[in-house]
Amino acid sequence: xxxxxxxSFQKRQREKKKAEKAALKRxxxxxxxxxxxxxxxxxxxxxxxxxxxxxxxxxxxxxxxPAGSRRWRRPRDGRRPAPCLPGPGPERAAPAGGAxxxxxxxxxxxxxxxxxxxxxxxxxxxxxxxxxxxxxLNQATLTFQVPSQPAAALLPGRDFEISESAPxxxxxxxxxxxxxxxxxxxxxxxxxxxxxxxxxxPEVTNSFVYRMPVNQEFTCKAGNTVMGFPKTVExxxxxxxxxxxxxxxxxxxxxxxRVRLPRVPAAMPPPEMETVSYSYLDGKPLETPLxxxxxxxxxxxxxxxxxxxxxxxxxxxxxxxxxRPPDLCTWAEGLSATFQRPRxx
Length: 345
Known about the structure:
Low-confidence stretches: 32-44, 51-83, 86-113
Number of strands: 20
Distance between the termini: 39 Å
CATH architecture of the largest domain: Beta Barrel
Number of domains: 2
CATH class of the largest domain: Mainly Beta
Number of helices: 5
Structural class: alpha+beta
Strand content: 35-45%
CATH topology of the largest domain: Acetoacetate decarboxylase-like
Largest sheet: 7 strands, mixed, barrel
CATH superfamily of the largest domain: Acetoacetate decarboxylase-like
Strand order of the largest sheet: 6-8-9-10-15-16-19
Mean pLDDT: 80
Shape: globular
């Protein structure tokens, strides 16, 4: 009886601390919203992203100004879809590769393994080495609260479950990425995913990208083969004006979506976060640790235009209640990211 009483007391204490921490976050967010900032808009912090379903790990990295210049470059032309293997999943996986050499791993904040060096091998004569450092990328990030049931229907395999943000609700995570300086080439990418957790482990929430179209063949092949990412080569176009960016995605010759949003300036230097992206390789669950900068240019959701086409993938998004304005949207230019060696879950 005394032991149960003690456990009950400890549980109440934990719940009390959790409630106090949530109240402090709300007060801090309210204070930030009232503070005037140059360039307009609220700052999207790592806490804000966590509230909307972004996995942030146990700790957040320190904010550091990005290195180098943010000089703008004109968008690339002449890109066309190229053939590539369908994205791997539990039933259809890309072949696994072998490691030639590696060094001992260390763990950073949040428990993400930060390997010193790992040479996976070669693809089409190009060495695949981890950590893989992306020096520059532009990214729009949009989140939408959507019903859990149709989201779960889009999740492949049986090793992961949808993490809910509210009863019967989860978050659709949409990332529109223009990789400017990447070891796997300069290319564009669209990520569609959900926050998930391994079955039976609801306390471990990270992202699972169920569709990852790109517009270059090498990154498609490397992503399929090494990381198990469901990359397919499609037509993606980023069009920039001085004030806006527009992204179009077509798959199989049919339009999927068009997104237009303002190129808002960063409200502060981008913070870093460490997280994990789940996937399947050879039918087995895999996780890829990564460290990435988070954009702080908050976009008014009312200024985001989202249109859907007539393709099957567009119909998938309609099953989730789109098109409609996002719950949260950020834009950033000149971000960086570091991908670590994938490992079994």
